[in-house]
Write a structure and sequence with these properties.
The relative contact order is 0.22. This protein has 125 residues and is of the alpha+beta class. Strand 4 and strand 5 form a beta hairpin. The radius of gyration is 14 Å and the shape is globular. Strands 1, 2, 3, 4, 5, 6 and 7 form a seven-stranded mixed β-sheet that branches. The longest helix has 13 residues.
Length: 125
């Protein structure tokens, strides 16, 4: 059984596959942190994701695994798969930690293989 916060977090991960991140589930000061060296306002992360999406043939498929919710946080283990237009294959493993303030997401902490991201995508694009 999942709660509303878990559903919000799962909806964000599903949206990643389309190259969009809806901003309405987030607080106005929400941030997206990634262990590869990013700590951005969510709107800036959404713009970066849209750029990365243009490098894929059909988006990034996110498959979720273990989900845990406690207090104001939801943790989701996930994997991804994508074929890039340059022929590279992107497949990564993640831990996403969503923090909530009330019913809105105030922070996402994304842990993944940052070397694989850097080797696969053109982050300067």
């Amino acid at each position: 059984m999942t709660n509303d916060r878990t559903q919000h977090a799962l909806a964000i991960l599903a949206a990643i596959g389309t190259g969009t991140v809806p901003l309405d589930p987030f607080t106005s000061d929400a941030r997206w942190w990634w262990n590869g060296g990013l700590d951005l306002p969510v709107a800036e992360f959404a713009a970066l994701l849209a750029t990365l999406h243009t490098q894929t043939e059909s988006g990034i498929a996110i498959t979720t695994g273990l989900i845990m919710a406690q207090d104001d946080s939801v943790m989701i283990e996930a994997t991804s798969a994508a074929r890039l237009i340059n022929g590279r294959i992107y497949d990564n493993r993640y831990i996403f930690l969503f923090h909530f303030r009330g019913d809105a997401i105030c922070e996402v902490r994304e842990y993944s293989d940052s070397a694989h991201v850097n080797a696969t995508f053109d982050l300067a694009a």
